[in-house]
Automatic annotation (TrEMBL):
Catalytic activity, EC: 2.7.13.3
Name of the molecule in the record: histidine kinase
Residues in Histidine kinase domain copies: 88-303
GO cellular component: plasma membrane
Alphabetized Pfam families for the sequence: HATPase_c, HisKA, Response_reg
Keywords: Coiled coil, Kinase, Phosphoprotein, Transferase
Domain of life: Bacteria
Record PTM 4-aspartylphosphate, positions in chain: 380
One Gene Ontology term of the molecular function aspect: phosphorelay sensor kinase activity
Catalysed conversion reaction: ATP + protein L-histidine = ADP + protein N-phospho-L-histidine
Domain Response regulatory: 329-446
Lineage start: Bacteria, Pseudomonadati, Pseudomonadota, Alphaproteobacteria, Hyphomicrobiales
Coiled coil residues, start to end: 44-78
Length: 447
């Protein structure tokens, strides 16, 4: 039956309604599909845009990273260059500073008037300040560059304590303070040079910020470790300063230092913490404001004896008790003309017989077939013609036929030189030399 044969109007309306509904649904579906198509295109454009932005950002980041790496490499090269420069410059600076120390000490021996002694004392203190500042600068540069690495060995505390007391006794007497080192025969595992620097900085701070009383240094075994205590009767440290004192350029409050004590740069305890960290030696302190402070340094213990003999008496700045060296024959190996002359004058002032040389050939010539045999050898490590002091000492001992006592006096701060000195059985002193300490060591070796 065709549509023309349908006469039922209502039925035609229903059919029309159904057809229209189908058409509308078809159009809606097409419209939805078109909308989805447009949405997809918009999303694709947005993704493409964001992708380009991300790529541009990554390119900029990559370029920045390249610049940062280049800047880092440049900074590292500059730091290494600075370290090498400081190391080289320090040797050149230490040589004339050492000559000045020796010359001023020889001059002090000749002074008879109070005014002359006073002036010599002022120059000595100025040289000590220069030495302290230079050593601090070198320590910081080596720590920052990571070139200061521990050279661990068995370190006897008795000679270390004696050396520190010889260094600080004149300062303590000038400040009117007591300085006491309790005797010990303990042996610890550490880096000899770095441990001495740690204790030196703590003792120096203790003296600087103590107006009355004094400083006591002692060692106490604690099982497998040993604790070194440095106690003072100074101003003490407030609780809110317990961390700040280890920061660079931090100084104690104005007026806290004892009368006559010179202010530092505020770097001493910062170096203590850095070196102690490198050695894995815990450092801490207890303090009461107005009462004093006790610093503790914990060290790996190798051996300890309870019946430790008293330390030798350190030369005093006032009582004139000085070791007698009259008649001692000293062979001096030094290639720096100023240092050689200053050291010769100083030793001659101590009534020593001195022969000086700058090369191995000259040194061997001074003892071979001359009948003049030294009681002691003082040698720099780096001599003329590339000769090394440790090697020349061995040649001289072979030539003489006896292990003559020897002291290596050098501005070379490397651990290699320290190891060579220990292997040769030679005492080591760093330039600039403190004449009182040198005199005490010579007397001890000759005895």
């Amino acid at each position: 039956m065709g549509i023309s044969d349908i006469t039922d109007v209502e039925r035609l309306k229903k059919i029309n309604t159904v057809l229209m509904s189908r058409v509308e649904r078809s159009m809606d579906q097409q419209g939805n599909a078109f909308s989805l198509f447009q949405t997809a295109i918009n999303l694709e454009n947005r993704i493409r845009l964001r992708t380009e932005e991300l790529r541009a950002t990554l390119r900029r980041l990559e370029e920045s990273n390249i610049d940062l790496v280049a800047a880092k490499d440049s900074a590292e090269r500059a730091n290494q260059s600075k370290t090498r420069f400081l190391a080289a410059a320090s040797h050149d600076i230490l040589q004339p500073l050492n000559a000045a120390n020796l010359s001023i000490s020889a001059l002090a021996e000749l002074q008879t008037s109070e005014e002359g002694k006073k002036l010599v004392g002022q120059v000595e203190r100025s040289l000590e300040t220069m030495e302290a500042l230079l050593k601090t600068l070198l320590d910081i540069s080596r720590l920052e560059a990571g070139v200061m690495r521990p050279d661990l060995s068995d370190v006897a505390l008795a000679p270390l304590f004696f050396s520190l007391r010889s260094d600080f006794q004149p300062l303590a007497e000038r400040l009117g303070l007591r300085l006491v080192f309790r005797p010990t025969q303990a042996v610890v595992r550490s880096d000899r040079t770095m441990l001495r620097r740690i204790l030196q900085n703590i003792v120096s701070n203790a003296l600087r910020y103590t107006a009355r009383g004094g400083v006591l240094v002692g060692a106490r075994p604690m099982g497998s470790t040993l604790r070194v205590d440095i106690a003072d009767t100074g101003q003490g440290i407030a609780d809110d300063q317990s961390e700040a004192i280890f920061e660079e350029f931090h100084r104690g409050p104005v007026g806290a230092a004892g009368e006559g004590a010179e202010g530092g740069l505020g770097l001493g305890l910062a170096i203590v913490r850095s070196m102690a960290s490198a050695l894995a030696h815990p450092v801490w302190f207890r303090s009461r404001v107005g009462k004093g402070t006790v610093f503790h340094v914990e060290l790996p213990l190798v051996a300890a004896k309870a019946d430790a003999p008293a330390l030798p008496i350190a030369p005093s700045a006032e009582d004139g008790r000085k070791p007698r060296l009259s008649g001692a024959k000293v062979l001096l190996l030094e290639n720096d003309v100023r240092v050689r002359q200053a050291m010769s004058d100083l030793l001659s002032g101590w009534n020593c017989s001195v022969a000086a040389a700058s090369t191995a050939r000259e040194a061997l010539g001074s003892v071979s077939g001359t009948g003049w045999l030294p009681n002691l050898i003082l040698a720099d490590q780096h001599l003329d013609n590339g000769d090394l002091g440790t090697q020349v000492i061995e040649q001289l001992r072979d030539c003489i036929g006896t292990p003559v006592p020897a002291v290596m006096i050098t501005a070379d701060l490397s651990g290699e030189v320290a190891a060579l000195a220990r292997a040769a059985g030679v005492e080591l002193m760093r330039k600039p030399v403190k004449p009182a300490q040198l005199r005490a060591l010579i007397a001890h070796l000759l005895a």
